[in-house]
Amino acid sequence: MLVFLGLLTSFLSFLYVTAPSIRKFFAGGVCGTNMQLPGKVVVITGANTGIGKETARELARRGARVYIACRDVLKGESAASEIRADTKNSQVLVRKLDLSDTKSIRAFAEDFRAEEKQLHILINNAGVMMCPYSKTADGFETHLGVNHLGHFLLTHLLLGQLKESAPARVVNLSSVVHLAGKIRFHDLQGEKSYNRGFAYCHSKLANVLFTRELAKRLQGTGVTTYAVHPGIVRSELVRHSFLLCLLWRLFSPFLKTAREGAQTSLHCALAEGLEPLSGKYFSDCKKTWVSPRARNNKTAERLWNVSCELLGIRWE
């Protein structure tokens, strides 16, 4: 037993000594474009913290007018103030957006359309993870409602401005855990069976399928779209799981920083020549493999139609 504990201690010590080198190896790609964005308008959901905040910081540094769309306006203002001071860009603005409430989404879109004539980049970054079973204000299971349906509706409401601003891009944050996801049309709201871990996986698969179908429907408009896996990142997203919080703290030296996690979002928002890859899934700043379920065109189209029915909308 003592020998085992000694070996375990030695192994853990070795891991932590080599952690900087290991984390650097797994940090992934870096957005390499030097594109500047003066006069460009960007909306990022959930940009008051984590990956979204670092994405907003970099786009503001490049001269864009950046809208931080988030539920907690006070946290949003704090993040915006920090970004403005860091980038010397005064055009970092905060607007209320609660993706768990379609009334809030519609109000945000209406106010934004009144405020801005153009929108060049929409980054659907916000999300929830491993929530205990609950429903949104509109009666949708929370993961489905926030991670998929909320962004589906927001994109629909802002699509006119994206088309008017073409070339424009929509970036949807997904996750590698979409591999474990399944679109359970017989139980989309998780009322028959619910597992909060799998509910998150299902919603991330929905993000990839939405991106795939959106790309097909946007052909010829000058608007392109991409799904992104940011990597395993130190962020607040795991706050609903005590076990994951513990693991994230234990293995934090090996996880990506929020800045590193933002690189693929930035790549898909900015990199030149990505238009032929619209609808594809990216990780570490390059197109990568997706699960067979994420490549199923019939499922993507069915999910699209069901989402429209649930939200009471019709895409032109």
Automatic annotation (TrEMBL):
Annotated InterPro entries: NAD(P)-bd_dom_sf (IPR036291), SDR_fam (IPR002347)
Keyword annotations from UniProtKB, A to Z: Lipid metabolism, NADP, Oxidoreductase, Signal
Pathway(s) annotated for this protein in UniProt: Cofactor metabolism; retinol metabolism
Matches recorded under Gene3D superfamilies: NAD(P)-binding Rossmann-like Domain
UniProt superkingdom: Eukaryota
Catalytic activity: all-trans-retinol + NADP(+) = all-trans-retinal + NADPH + H(+)
Residues annotated as signal peptide: 1-19
EC number in record: 1.1.1.300
Pfam assignment, any one: adh_short
GO molecular function: all-trans-retinol dehydrogenase (NADP+) activity
Family membership: Belongs to the short-chain dehydrogenases/reductases (SDR) family.
Protein name: NADP-retinol dehydrogenase
UniProt organism field: Balaenoptera musculus (Blue whale)
Name of the gene: RDH12
